[in-house]
Amino acid sequence: MTQTLSPETEGKHLPAAPGRSPLSLVLSDWRVLIGRNIKHITRNPEMLFQAVSLPIVLLLLFRFMFGGAINSPGMAYIDYLVPGLVVVSIGFNATTTVVGVASDLTNGLVERFRSMPMAGSAVLVGHVAAGVLRSALSLVVMVGVGLAIGFRPGGGLLGWLGALGLLALFAAGVFWLATLLGTIAKTVEGASGLGMILVFVPYATSALVPTASMPGVLRVVVQNQPVTVLIDAVRALMNGTDLGSTGWLALTWWVAITALAAVFAVRKFHQRAGG
């Protein structure tokens, strides 16, 4: 017999079964929606192609066409370039998340979810987790291609673990920002446009060229924006160079950004979903 939920119980859990805490039910909802979005990745080869193709094209382009004209003091340009493009590639993947969240909100899927006793935040968590997974795939492929064309990082195991930790935090922050933009967008087409913000912001950083070559005002802005701080920290950890204060600054920036983006995204999602 199908259970019909009243308006008061829509989108909320029914009383927990014996031995099941409310937290375990929420975690179960998250697991189901994460699985849903991962299946979308495996069944959509175009999504996987997008996740890795453009970053690789940029890597080859800058390595072989522009690399000889760009001076990267203290290291080979390929060693300078790969950590920056790893961060840039995370922004590429964000557009898919913005569009996915907007699509869920506009095509009636969320209304169907609200008829079930489930945590609304699971919809967003599923999108964020899938985005982080796409970025991890892009990282593996890009580092592999980088090694094939001359990338020789000097950081040890601890340095790489630190770099991966910062990249995971950054990816979480970017995809929570992407879900927030998805909840703001009124249409799927508009979501695609909003997603371009996250695509292009990483370009205004030290990802591709040293900031010392930039004009004065622009250099000050670029050097102190949170994506540049993170790129500089990841680059130092991967290559075994002086980290300075960039590690703590990157950690502080992106813990704060991730937390705020998650809070506002969930709040806006509930406003759009009607509860």
UniProtKB/TrEMBL annotation:
One of the Pfam families matching this protein, by short name: ABC2_membrane
Chief location category: membrane
Alphabetical keyword list: Antibiotic resistance, Cell membrane, Membrane, Transmembrane, Transmembrane helix, Transport
InterPro entries attached to this UniProt entry: ABC2_TM (IPR013525), ABC2_TM_bact-type (IPR047817), ABC_2_transport (IPR000412), Nod_factor_ABC_transporter (IPR051784)
Domain ABC transmembrane type-2: 46-272
Membrane topology, as annotated: Multi-pass membrane protein
Protein origin, superkingdom: Bacteria
Transmembrane region(s): 47-68, 80-102, 123-151, 157-178, 190-209, 247-266
Family: Belongs to the ABC-2 integral membrane protein family.
Alphabetized PANTHER family for the sequence: NODULATION PROTEIN J
Name of the featured protein: Transport permease protein
UniProt organism field: Amycolatopsis cynarae
